Each structure stands twice: as C-alpha cells, then as structure tokens.
Amino acid sequence: MDEEVLVGGNSSTVVRVGDTVHRPSGPWTPAVHQLLTTLRAAGVTEIPEPFGLDEEGREVLSYLPGIVGNYPMPPWMWSRTILLEAGALLRRVHDASVPLAHRADIWQLPAHEPIEVMCLNDVAPYNMVFQDGHITGLIDVDMASPGPRIWDLAYLAYRLVPLGEYTDEDVPDSDARPGRLAALIRAYGYDFAQAAILRTAADRLADLAVFTDRRATDTGRNDFVDHAALYRRDRDRLLDLSARA
C-alpha cells in the first residue's frame, strides 16, 4: 500500500499505511510497546495499539483518526473541556503504568527521581488527537521513561495552560492562567501546589533545552537552536513566577 507522510513530526519521518502508522524504532521500542500494551489492557484505549516491526525495521502502530494539535493552535484548543480532559487522561495513563515504573527496561530518556509512574515526557497538544472538540488519543509515546507524576503534569501545564511565551490573540492571558492551572491540577486529582508545578516545569525546560541543543548539533537544524533558547527564557520566567507564587 502507498505510504502517506504525516505532518507534524519534529525530527523523524512518520508515515501512514492504511490503518497503521510506521515510524523509526530504537532499542527502547520493545519497552514502549510493552507500555502501550499494558495501558490498553488497563482500559486506556486512547493510545495506539502496537503491531511490532515492519520489514524495514520500523515500528508499526494503529492509526488514531482525528486532528492532531499542531501549531499554530486553533482557538478551540484552549477550551476548558480540553484542559480538564487532558488532566484526567494523564492521570489514567499514570495509574495504569505503575507496574512498569520500576522494571529494568531500556528507555530513550533517563529516569527522573522519585520514580512513581511511567512519564510520557512529551504530553502536549501536538501529541494529542482531537475529534469534535474532545481529546480522543495520545500519540508519540516513544520518549517515555520512569519518573514522578508531577514531571509530566508540569510539562502538560506548560503547553496547555499555557505557561510559555505566546503572541496569538486567542491564547489565555496571564490573568486566566492561574485559574486554568488550578483546574488542570484538580482534573488530574493530586494536590500539587502551583509553585511546585512551576518549578518542575522550569526543570523540565532546562532538560529539554539540553536535549534540543543535542538535536541541533546532530541535525544541523537552526530551528532547534531557536527552540532551545525559547525553553531557557521560559525556564527563567517560570522560576521567577514560582518564587512569587
């Protein structure tokens, strides 16, 4: 069957073949597929089903139909419904992942202490699938690794509250963001302090800046350099906000 290149991939080519998605694999792929299988067995069917590798060594996953939240974000992405659904879905993913958190598996990213769950490490609208204004899927979980619940929740807050730099007129303004952050925390269902979320998001961005610098070196892409600089600016701003929270 013909291959259709899917848009939105940041540094790898992902293609659709019929009702499946084929994407580059790595030493971490068996552990990621076990994670997907475990989540689906626990009732988290919003993530792809793994089907092993194809003849070219690419991983094969089920295709999740819908709209992916690529940038620039449409205005409906900032609805309160999506914010609450994202927090609740992340909680379900984390709870179902607990049995795998302390296994000695190979993951693409290092673990972060304290290990509580499997963090997806990139829970954001560009890795979500939407239909009719609701979240119906989570994709691109190959960056998963063990870590604390707040690590994932803080990055989701960074992307969906949002906590970063945005100039789009439809993005919730600074006055709305504390309320949206509180709503996201409630939807997840843990009593995290907002200051703790802000500090953790800053730590996550520091890690992401280093990771993105490496990608810039490996690929020669200048846009990665710009992304790393943005992450560091947002890190500094979030540290300042957390100190005043």
Q: Strand tally, please?
A: 10
Largest β-sheet summary: 5 strands, antiparallel
Ends apart, CA distance between termini: 55 Å
**What do we call the CATH topology of the largest domain?**
Transferase(Phosphotransferase), domain 1
Percent of residues in β-strands:
5-15%
Briefly note the structural class of the backbone: alpha+beta
Alpha-carbon Rg, integer: 17 Å
Report the average pLDDT across residues. Answer: 94
General shape: globular
* CATH architecture group name of the largest domain: Orthogonal Bundle
List the total number of helices: 6
Poorly predicted runs: none
> Spatial order of the strands in the main sheet?
1-2-3-5-4
CATH superfamily placement of the largest domain: Transferase(Phosphotransferase) domain 1
The CATH C-level name of the largest domain is: Mainly Alpha
| Helix and strand run | EEEHEEEHEEEEHHHH
Please bin the fraction of helical residues. Answer: 40-55%
Number of domains: 2
GO molecular function: transferase activity
Organism: Cryobacterium cheniae
InterPro entries: Aminoglycoside_PTrfase, Kinase-like_dom_sf
Protein name: Aminoglycoside phosphotransferase family protein
